[in-house]
Specification:
alpha+beta, single chain, 4 helices, globular
């Protein structure tokens, strides 16, 4: 069975990022972005998707976290797309309602080759600690665009902003896991009447 792993390096004047992923892993991660809360969220993404993930990022954090978070999303998305190849034999679709204490968040995905993000998540504060809450959306926008997936994320309710953000990452992790799983009934088929998931 072909390995579904990939490495991506991305260097700009704002960031330098290296990512490796193994879709058929066990959820092991080594994350170092220089942003503590973001590291915690990426660890959740890896752990609950069972995608082994190594991420190192050096960015212009003296300005703010935006470039580092967005460019990390780009690199992870590119690595996932590369690891999936022609997307042959995958389940393609998945959705989940994920609960964490008082919070419930829904995620749904189509690994379609057509990037799109629908984001229905609001935060009551601009910050979680020192992390800008608006960057949660920026990460998933970059991830969806570069992985070539249609991703819908909606927070149905919740009061704690940390919980809202964390359920977004965990819910997306679970739909990545389910949609990337190999389909035992059609292991060699591209799951599309078009015969391609290239867009």
């Amino acid at each position: 069975m072909a390995s579904r792993s990939a490495e991506i390096s991305r260097k700009t004047r704002e960031t330098e990022i290296a990512v490796s992923v193994d879709i058929d892993g066990a959820g092991h991660s080594e994350i170092a972005t220089g942003i503590g809360f973001f590291d915690h969220m990426l660890d959740q993404l890896s752990r609950h998707s069972l995608i082994d993930m190594k991420v190192t990022a050096k960015g212009d954090l003296h300005i703010d976290d935006h470039h580092t978070v967005e460019d990390t999303g780009i690199a992870i998305g590119q690595a996932l797309a590369k690891a999936l190849g022609d997307r042959r034999g995958i389940m393609r679709y998945a959705s989940i309602d994920l609960a964490m204490d008082e919070t419930l968040t829904r995620a749904a995905i189509d690994v379609s080759g057509r990037p799109f993000l629908v984001w229905d998540v609001s935060f009551s504060s601009p910050k979680i600690g020192t992390f800008d809450t608006e960057l949660v959306r920026e990460f998933f926008q970059a991830l969806a665009q570069n992985a070539g997936v249609t991703l819908h994320v909606a927070n149905l309710y919740g009061a704690n902003n940390h919980h809202i953000a964390e359920t977004c990452f965990k819910a997306v992790a679970r739909v990545l896991r389910a949609a990337f799983e190999r389909d035992p009934r059609q292991p060699e088929a591209v799951p599309s009447t078009k015969g391609t998931l290239g867009g």
